[in-house]
Structure formats: C-alpha cells, structure tokens
Specification:
Blueprint: E1 9-18, H1 23-36, E2 41-52, H2 54-69, E3 73-77, H3 81-89, E4 98-99, H4 102-108
Parallel strand pairs: 1-2, 2-3, 3-4
Helix pairs in contact: 1-2
Length: 122
C-alpha cells in the first residue's frame, strides 16, 4: 500500500548531463511538473541521462523532500548506466524507490500517466 494516495503518476523525463551546472534545473523541472499536475505521484525517468554526479543526487533528494512534505510520492525509473552507478554508490534505493524500467514504475500507480504537467505541455 502506498504511503500517499496517487491518482496516477506524472512522468518527468530527464536527459543529458546532470552535474553541478544542471542539477538545479533538473530539480526545478521535477518540482514544476509536480506543481502543474493534479496527480500525487511523480516518476522521474532517468533513461536518457548521459552523466550523473552527486549534484544530481542532491537535487533528487531535495525534490523528494519537498514532494514528501506536500504529501506526494516520487520514484525513479530506468536509470541509465551513469546514473545507476552514482545512485547505487550512494545507496539511494534505501530512500527512494528505483524501478528498472519506466513501464514498471508507471504500472505501479493506477490511473494512467499525466504528461500534460511538463513545461510546454497542454
């Protein structure tokens, strides 16, 4: 049973290099998508991340804390090899659920995906 009611997930795709120069933008993308959505759960798709350092982890943890304080649930999905190495080294899976593929994360939450919450979405 989920700690928070969901009503379906909001999918937030992240791509490119996530480092000290881009980590805050990733955090803001996640928080903006959650804010624009009426859904209680956020699935962060890390499958197209080419580089991921500890700055990215800091940004994810900040987003996780903000969303949890709002009564929302955040999970990570399909981390690329670079993201997976960093997440595993820092044992992020002990705090945030990490799904091996996006479809598994989306299937975990009933109600269908809401991608209209993304910047530029309808």
């Amino acid at each position: 049973m989920e700690r928070f009611p969901c009503g379906g997930p909001t999918l937030v795709p992240v791509e490119g290099e996530i480092d000290i120069a881009t980590a805050d933008a990733m955090r803001e993308l996640i928080l903006l998508a959650a804010e624009r959505s009426l859904r209680g759960c956020v699935v962060v798709d890390l499958s197209r991340v080419g580089f991921f350092d500890a700055s990215g982890v800091r940004a994810l943890l900040t987003a996780y804390r903000v969303l949890t304080a709002q009564g929302r649930h955040m999970v990570l999905a399909e981390p690329s090899a670079p993201a997976r190495r960093t997440l595993d080294a820092l044992r992020i899976h002990d705090l945030i659920d990490v799904y091996p593929i996006v479809e598994m994360a989306l299937a975990h939450f009933p109600g269908g995906v809401d991608d209209r919450s993304l910047p530029g979405g309808d």
